[in-house]
């Protein structure tokens, strides 16, 4: 083999890596919050205005879904969440991010409400603590209040079946 | 209607690019000079239409035409005019249009200033640039049309990312693109040489001019980006080894190597094959950088919107352009390379060694950048490679690079003697040793081996470069004085940057403290008094502005006003640091979070010599361009046919 062909060969290998890389999602890089205790907040419930904070759910696994009525991808994932909430008992807490209560309520009325509890975060304060950098994001919190997984971007049926359900089954077996 | 004209003109630009790519090649093949002559008007037409198209996009921004999706996504009515203009290239689609415009601009310049290159070479170069332009224009039209309309026109736009509402960032991308795209000229030159199968020494001089100009832009673009990150991101860091930063550093390193091999090819008529490979590589890395940044295969603080379709397109483009080039290289580079004998101790050896070191640097940075991708692709792990890796691997490469650089100035072509070099260079060597050991004792708070090493390298480069300048016209080599002076300035610039990096990395002090109004905190001889925070309202943002009085040895030095801004149309709070800048040190104050009561978390930093990093970059760019001036005076014609 000619030495002049070496660059071509190296380049070929690089292209293969890049091509595979394109099929993967780099956002799957674990969030630094995983394995850490869920960040505390106290926010009013959308309908009752009663304060809610994550400690109230200690001892059970739950899901925190960050959404907003102005967010397009939230519309896409919404029916997946509604479907999930109809079949599974795991509580989904909706964190309504930088939204108005009126629009949030109208939205839930129109598209269905998968949330047992919806809290208002109009200022986005709690969102910052949870390291939110794009809506929607979905966190899974275990019985001890530790964040176990973070989904960036919309939930899909595939993500629910391949990742969310096995994780919840595993958490279910752990002691509280 | 106007945005449609913009869109249409991009298509017209594409038509010109196709003529540019095809006509000269067919002309050369069929020996038809009329076809060859089409290259120049096609280059001019392409430039004009891209220019108008780009101006139309700028216009759409200035008149708040939110029916254009790209405008609605990146601008709003409250945005100050200057950022409406810079928002044009603030996101993906507009950046690409700017890319295409700059490429057309470089092509236009090549068509006008073709120097002494034979007509068929210029025609080939223009044709290759035309091919590159076709690729980018198709990319715009297929995946990233900035003129796309919205059916429901919003009343208000979403505004430009607040991070980008800054003068540094308004000019950073155009600078960087001038550099990236400018490397296309050297690339086109290399392909033209391979197609022709001939490489004359005078041509290397021509290629060097274009490469140096592109390199100077790239240098300034990178430095601007670093400076911007320093004062805008609020961390006080000036380089993060982020994939996007690395993407700009990779072609810079190779362009630096290329300039030096072009010098060898121009003065000695050898190393042609290596020169061509570097020219291909430099542009390939520009394209790779575009791929990494635009496809979203790597996560980065820059977090550009990513779209897999775009990634696929750029990858195909990369494969076509670089793959074909390397095939051509593999098949034909032996035709143009000449090996001329030289001894182990010679300027050739030194320049070649440093070239190899630069390529090794590029390879280690590239490896670190795509390592997460490789592991992920092999399904092994997901991880990110951070600064410790890069710092660890770059240090041992920089030391020999700096050492050899000093010898490079004084050495002779073909054959030199180590004894002669040592005899010549004892003065700069002793001076560098003195500076490296004495300066830390006098000026720096504590002794550090790495600081001595860094200063030794910097001083050695600077003194040996000056020594070269003072020893006028050594051993009968003909060097135009401006070329030497510019080159010396550029190398001193590198030494200045190296000094800045060394001292700021080792002696910076960084404190995150909780301060209540009236409370003070001292770093060295500086005392920072926190006076509290007031709320301010500006055009398009709300700010919590802190006041910090800085005392030096008890006397008031300055007042700094760090801010935390919330832009009305966005949600993310932004940090504006308060900075007191001096050549010898920066004092840097950034507001963190509000704590209980009136107390705030405040980040105080003392950054010695941090300005030197950017100052050195400016010297490098200026020196590089100065070295090109009046080079006509001394081009020895006799060598040209050697």
Question: Can you tell me about this structure?
Answer:
The complex is a heterodimer of chains A (176) and B (642). Chain A is α/β, with parallel strands linked by helices. Chain A has a single domain, classed as Glutaredoxin (3-Layer(aba) Sandwich), CATH 3.40.30.10. Helices cover 38% and strands 19% of the residues of chain A. Chain A is built from five helices and seven strands, in the order αβββαβαβαββα. Chain A has helices at residues 6-22, 72-87, 101-111, 125-129, 157-173, and strands at 43-44, 51-52, 62-67, 91-97, 117-121, 137-141, 147-152. In chain A, the strands form two sheets. In chain A, strands 5-4-3-6-7 form a five-stranded mixed sheet. In chain A, strands 1-2 form a two-stranded antiparallel sheet. In chain A, helix 2 links the parallel strand 3 and strand 4 (91-97). Chain A is elongated, with a radius of gyration of 20 Å. The N and C termini of chain A lie far apart (63 Å). In chain A, 35% of the residues are buried. By secondary structure, chain B is of the alpha+beta class. Among the domains of chain B are: 1-160, no CATH class; 508-609. In chain B, 63% of the residues lie in helices and 11% in strands. Chain B is built from 18 helices and ten strands. In chain B, the strands form two sheets. In chain B, strands 2, 3, 4, 5, 6 and 7 form a six-stranded antiparallel sheet that branches. In chain B, helix 1 (2-30) packs antiparallel against helix 3 (39-62), helix 6 (92-112) runs antiparallel to helix 7 (119-143) and helix 9 (201-232) packs antiparallel against helix 10 (243-268). The radius of gyration of chain B is 26 Å and the shape is flat. Chain B starts with a helix and ends in a 16-residue tail after the last helix. In chain B, 52% of the residues are buried. Mean pLDDT of chain B is 88; it is low at 301-305 and 633-642. At the A-B interface, helix 1 of A face helix 11, helix 12 and helix 13 of B. Chain B: Residues 315-630 form the Cytochrome c-type biogenesis protein CcmF C-terminal domain. Chain B: This is Heme lyase CcmF/NrfE family subunit. Chain B: Required for the biogenesis of c-type cytochromes. Possible subunit of a heme lyase. Chain B: The chain crosses the membrane at residues 6-26, 38-61, 96-113, 125-144, 175-195, 207-229, 249-267, 274-292, 312-331, 352-374, 394-413, 425-444, 450-469, 489-509, 609-629. Chain B: It is a multi-pass membrane protein.
């Amino acid at each position: 083999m000619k030495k002049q062909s070496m660059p071509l060969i190296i380049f070929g290998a690089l292209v293969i890596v890049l091509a595979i890389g394109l099929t993967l999602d780099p956002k799957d890089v674990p969030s630094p919050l995983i394995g850490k205790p869920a960040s505390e907040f106290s926010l009013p419930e959308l309908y009752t205005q009663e304060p809610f904070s994550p400690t109230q759910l200690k001892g059970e696994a739950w899901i925190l879904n960050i959404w907003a009525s102005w967010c397009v991808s939230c519309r896409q994932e919404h029916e997946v969440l509604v479907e999930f909430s109809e079949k599974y008992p795991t509580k989904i807490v909706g964190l309504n991010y930088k939204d108005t209560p009126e629009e949030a309520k109208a939205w839930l009325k129109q598209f269905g409400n998968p949330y047992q509890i919806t809290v208002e975060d109009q200022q986005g304060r709690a969102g910052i603590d949870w390291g939110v950098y794009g809506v929607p994001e979905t966190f899974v919190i275990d019985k001890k209040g530790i964040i176990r997984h973070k989904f960036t971007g919309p939930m899909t049926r595939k993500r629910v079946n391949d990742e969310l359900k096995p994780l919840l089954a595993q958490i279910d077996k752990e002691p509280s | 209607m106007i945005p449609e004209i913009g869109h249409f003109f991009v298509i017209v630009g594409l038509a010109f690019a196709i003529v540019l790519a095809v006509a000269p090649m067919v002309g050369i093949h069929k020996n038809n000079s009329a076809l060859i002559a089409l290259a120049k008007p096609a280059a001019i037409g392409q430039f004009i239409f891209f220019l108008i198209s780009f101006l139309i996009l700028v216009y759409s921004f200035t008149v708040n035409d939110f029916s254009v999706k790209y405008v609605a996504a990146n601008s709003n009515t409250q945005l100050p005019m200057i950022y409406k203009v810079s928002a044009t290239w603030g996101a993906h689609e507009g950046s690409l249009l700017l890319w295409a415009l700059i490429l057309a601009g470089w092509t236009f310049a090549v068509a006008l200033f073709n120097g002494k290159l034979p007509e068929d070479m210029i025609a080939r170069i223009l044709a290759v640039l035309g091919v590159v332009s076709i690729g980018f224009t198709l990319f715009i039209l297929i995946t990233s049309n900035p003129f796309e309309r919205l059916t429901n026109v919003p009343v208000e736009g979403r505004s430009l990312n607040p991070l980008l509402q800054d003068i540094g960032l308004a000019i950073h991308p155009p600078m960087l693109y001038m550099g990236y795209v400018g490397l296309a000229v050297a690339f086109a030159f290399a392909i033209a040489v391979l197609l022709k199968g001939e490489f004359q020494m005078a041509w290397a001089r021509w290629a060097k001019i274009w490469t140096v100009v592109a390199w100077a832009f790239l240098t300034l673009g990178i430095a601007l980006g670093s400076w911007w990150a320093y004062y805008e991101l609020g961390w006080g860091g000036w380089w993060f080894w982020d994939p996007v930063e690395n993407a700009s550093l990779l072609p810079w390193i190779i362009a630096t190597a290329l300039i030096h091999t072009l010098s060898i090819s121009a003065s000695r008529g050898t190393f042609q094959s290596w020169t061509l490979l570097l020219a291909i590589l430099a542009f390939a890395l520009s394209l790779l950088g575009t791929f990494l940044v635009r496809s979203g295969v790597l996560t980065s603080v820059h977090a550009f919107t990513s779209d897999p379709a775009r990634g696929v397109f750029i990858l195909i483009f990369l494969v076509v352009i670089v793959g074909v080039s390397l095939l051509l290289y593999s098949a034909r580079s032996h035709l143009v390379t000449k090996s001329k004998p030289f001894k182990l101790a010679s300027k050739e050896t030194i320049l070649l060694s440093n070239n190899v070191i630069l390529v090794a640097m590029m390879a280690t940075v590239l490896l670190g950048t795509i390592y997460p991708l490789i592991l992920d692709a092999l399904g092994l792990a997901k991880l990110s490679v951070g600064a410790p890796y890069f710092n660890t691997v770059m240090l041992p490469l920089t030391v020999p690079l700096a050492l050899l650089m000093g010898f490079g100035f004084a050495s002779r072509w073909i054959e030199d003697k180590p004894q002669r070099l040592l005899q010549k260079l004892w003065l700069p060597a002793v001076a560098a040793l003195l500076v490296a050991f004495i300066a830390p004792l006098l000026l720096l708070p504590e002794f550090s081996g790495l600081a001595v090493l860094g200063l030794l390298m910097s001083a050695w480069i600077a003194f040996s470069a000056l020594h070269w300048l003072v020893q006028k016209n050594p051993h009968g080599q003909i060097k135009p004085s401006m070329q030497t002076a510019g080159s010396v300035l550029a190398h001193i610039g590198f030494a200045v940057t190296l000094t800045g990096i060394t001292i700021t990395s080792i002696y910076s002090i960084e404190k995150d403290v909780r301060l209540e109004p009236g409370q003070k905190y001292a770093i060295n001889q500086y005392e920072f008094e926190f006076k509290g925070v007031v709320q301010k309202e500006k055009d398009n943002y709300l700010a919590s502005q802190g006041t910090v009085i800085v005392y030096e040895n008890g006397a008031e030095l300055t007042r700094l006003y760090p801010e935390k801004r919330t832009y009305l149309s966005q949600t993310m709070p932004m940090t504006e640091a308060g900075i007191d800048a001096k050549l010898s040190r920066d004092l840097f104050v950034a507001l963190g979070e509000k704590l209980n009561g009136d107390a705030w978390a405040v980040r105080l930093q003392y950054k010695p010599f941090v300005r030197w990093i950017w100052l050195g970059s400016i010297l490098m760019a200026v020196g590089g361009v100065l070295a090109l001036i009046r080079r006509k005076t001394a081009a020895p014609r006799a060598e040209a046919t050697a």
